[in-house]
Amino acid sequence: MAQQGHSAACCTVPPAVVGDYKAKGDYFDLDGMQVYTTGPSTATSAIFIIYDIFGYSPQALQGADILAHADKNHQYQVFMPDFFLGKPLPLSVFPPDTEEKKKQFGNFFAGPADRPKNAEKVHKLVGKLREKYPGVEKWACLGMCWGGKIVSLTSQSGTPWTASAEVHPALVDPNDAKGIKIPLCMLASGDENSEDVKKFKENLSVDNHVETFGDQVHGWMAAR
Q: Of 41, 66, 101, 122, which has the fewest beta carbons less than 10 angstroms from its beta carbon?
């Protein structure tokens, strides 16, 4: 059974083991939180990335670099804050197949990964980033797995985003879709609950693209 409402795959599929990736960006401190940034400083559009429960995985950093530089005609400044302050969910917890591991898993989602508290952090962080980077005119957001849920919560009334996207999102709740106020893209894997994804799309009243990649596992665009 999935823990904390997450998909079974989120709770059982470990992150991939990959070779070292040399990130193209840099890190800076923002009010006590480390932020990875990549992309040209002249770009007037930015992407705010909310990673998955494994934090700064090589795949997440590489994805940020790709988004920043892939389109030479429309490049982006990309910012990925370290919400877990250097302490993502330990790999040793996977899979959470003992009572102790289940306890650690639950404590992590009730603590560092608490969803409402992190949604509040997002608004504060974006405000500080706007002050630091006044040349950025538009902000979009991308969330992976756990981060996808934060995207849903921060795309409601008062959102700082022009558009948002969530990939292999955790905790897909069709009720969240009813309050989303901006164009949204959802790319689900074959491991997400198909009925929840379908109802989520039906409840959206904004421009959207919702697609399921049935041959992909949960986390395929992040740490897995």
A: 41
